[in-house]
Amino acid sequence: MGIVEEAHNVKVLGSGDRTIVFAHGFGTDQSVWKHVVPHLLDEYRVILFDNMGAGTTNPEYFDFDRYATLEGYAYDVLAILEELQVESCIYVGHSVSAMVGIIASVNRPDLFIKLIMISGSPRYLNDVDYYGGFEQEDLDQLFEAMKSNYKAWCSGFAPLAVGGDMDSPAVQEFSRTLFNMRPDIALSVSQIIFQSDYRHILGHVAVPCHIIQSMNDLAVPVVVSEYLHQNLGSESIVEVMSTDGHLPQLSSPDVVVPVILRHIRNDIAA
Known about the structure:
Blueprint: H1 3-7, E1 11-14, E2 18-23, E3 44-48, H2 71-83, E4 89-94, H3 96-107, E5 112-118, H4 136-148, H5 150-162, H6 169-179, H7 183-194, E6 209-216, H8 222-231, E7 236-244, H9 248-251, H10 253-265
Parallel strand pairs: 2-3, 2-4, 4-5, 5-6, 6-7
Antiparallel strand pairs: 1-3
């Protein structure tokens, strides 16, 4: 196993001619895909990994300068593909990793057959003629709460993000992976994500994009999926699901898994 594979806890499963890469979002790890992956192992080669900074990675490997922008994560994706000698893949990215996939695909469009983006956003802050869902004051309060008592913040944020009561398995699972992050790393990562703006890069995307979104998502309003659809340089399709929350693959797998599988197996109709 190579250095990159080991650092990111890379797992290669299944068999098939086509490769799927699953990339998780903030506060989770590769286990967030546990409901989806078993359905694919007979048809596809599946690559799972953990983003640097996830609770399952070595915090000593987290370079605050490298991960001061999402490009650092995009370069990690490209390094994993290179180490595994992947020549083309279907990329499934959740939350921040949807935008990480966009950045990686702009750098190396030849490596990506298509991008499947779940709960992705190019910008979380509202702007003139753009609704991202947050004002700066909202984010300042969020960051302050993380600084003052990270464990208490996790307990409050998890049910809001997932949608549902504190006792639901999905909320418990997200609370666990969120709390596994080192607090200073979690704060830095959340600041980079929530303050990011990648609207300018959308027009440079040349790879087909499948945009999947919950009807109700605390972090990403439904209008953002339409904004992506209208501004991506490549062909794209939007599917808004009747699900609640930012982690629908965890909280509503019965609805979401068939949707993800359909977008993996079917290309955008001409």
